[in-house]
Specification:
By secondary structure, this protein is α/β, with parallel strands linked by helices. Helix content is 27%, strand content 23%.
Length: 175
């Protein structure tokens, strides 16, 4: 919700205090401008898929790129069990830290539920995200969970992730 919006009750929505913005498309100056206003900046990056238009796309070998993400032909799932993928995603987290972001919103963070082209188990997905979360925390960044759960019903995945996350981003409304 933004300035001038109304809440689900019809009351005026509060002004945003946290902005979730693209880690590649926004500069350190953009983050500093938000901080100067007393606001927080969360770094949006994909951790379970590769967008072929990102500046680091050529660093991901073809053997770690799987099926296209449904509805997004320029995005392909990543083999999150690959040490190469872990290293390259950690470099993205470094980018967030270097730009001064307060935290990371990891998109496509539950790819074990999708047809990725790889055999990714829920346990492997949790391990991958725990590794990335630990790395982000060492850099002083908060770590989020994107969606998770099924229609608001807690899942084992969410329960396993709770010790590793500092906030959650839910794209679907709960009424």
């Amino acid at each position: 919700m933004g300035t001038g919006d109304t809440s689900y009750t019809g009351a005026p929505a509060l002004a945003p205090v946290v902005y979730d913005i693209d880690g590649f498309d926004n500069s350190a100056a953009d983050v500093a401008a938000l901080h100067a206003l007393g606001l927080k900046a969360i770094c949006y990056i994909e951790v379970g898929a590769l967008e072929n238009y990102r500046s680091d796309a050529s660093q991901f070998p073809s053997n770690v790129q799987g099926h296209a993400v449904s509805g997004y032909p320029s995005e392909h799932y990543l083999d999150i069990t690959s040490p190469t993928v872990v290293s390259l995603i950690e470099a993205r987290i470094d980018l967030c830290a270097q730009k001064g972001f307060d935290g990371v919103e990891p998109d496509i963070d539950d790819s074990y539920t999708d047809s990725t082209g790889f055999n990714i188990t829920e346990a492997a997905n949790v391990s991958y995200l725990a590794t990335l979360s630990d790395y982000a925390h060492r850099l002083g960044l908060a770590w989020g969970l994107k969606n998770g759960g099924d229609g608001g019903t807690p899942t084992q995945f969410v329960a396993d992730m709770i010790p590793h996350v500092d906030f959650a981003v839910i794209e679907e409304p709960f009424y």
